[in-house]
Inverse folding.
């Protein structure tokens, strides 16, 4: 840049145009900066390496050949067994039969006869035994006397007596085989049979024998 020297008389005029010059300088500087920036960007674009296109390698693989099946082995031919030779039979001489001696024949001896004992006579059957009888009409055995206390207390029941009858038809022993549940009734039954009853004795065949008999004795209030 060249400097301009003005005469002193023009100083005042020159001072009035200084602001415009300063503004132009600023504009020029800005334009230069923009141009430099644009040139720099353009240079970078030009210098940047272009992208190299990628190439794809495609290779085709041939399919594996199918396995070849080997032929199946042939079965071995059957071998025929060798025929065995039968052993030769050697004939052996048969022994000559020797004559058998016959023993002397003896006549049979008769066996002695056994004498069987006579059969025993059948045993006689035992005579039939009949039990004692106490219900015959001609015996006229009375009933027991109903105790007054039992009537008042309304005691009832059946007494089972076990009686031994002698050969002459009397009660030798009288016991209570099953109680009526009331002692007074049991005692009344025992007393009347022991003192006042008569029996037809048991018979073994035609002979009278002693025997036991059971007698039921009933006590009921509706009978009195």
């Amino acid at each position: 840049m060249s400097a301009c020297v003005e005469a002193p008389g023009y100083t005042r005029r020159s001072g009035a145009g200084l602001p415009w010059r300063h503004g132009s300088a600023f504009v020029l500087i800005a334009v230069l900066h923009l141009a430099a920036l644009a040139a720099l960007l353009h240079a970078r674009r030009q210098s940047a390496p272009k992208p190299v296109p990628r190439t794809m390698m495609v290779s085709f693989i041939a399919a594996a050949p199918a396995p070849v099946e080997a032929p199946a082995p042939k079965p071995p031919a059957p071998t025929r067994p060798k025929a065995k030779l039968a052993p030769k039979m050697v004939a052996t001489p048969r022994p000559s039969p020797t004559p058998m001696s016959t023993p002397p024949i003896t006549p049979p001896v008769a066996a002695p006869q056994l004498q069987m004992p006579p059969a025993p006579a059948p045993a006689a059957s035992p005579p039939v035994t009949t039990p004692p009888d106490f219900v015959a009409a001609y015996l006229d055995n009375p009933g027991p006397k109903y105790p007054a206390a039992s009537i008042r207390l309304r005691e009832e029941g059946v007494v089972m007596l076990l009686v031994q009858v002698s050969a002459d038809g009397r009660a030798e022993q009288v016991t209570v085989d099953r109680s009526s549940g009331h002692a007074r009734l049991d005692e009344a039954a025992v007393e009347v049979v022991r003192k006042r009853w008569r029996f037809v004795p048991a018979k073994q065949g035609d002979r009278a024998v002693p025997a036991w008999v059971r007698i039921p004795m009933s006590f009921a209030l509706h009978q009195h």
Summary: The chain has a mean pLDDT of 75. The radius of gyration is 82 Å.
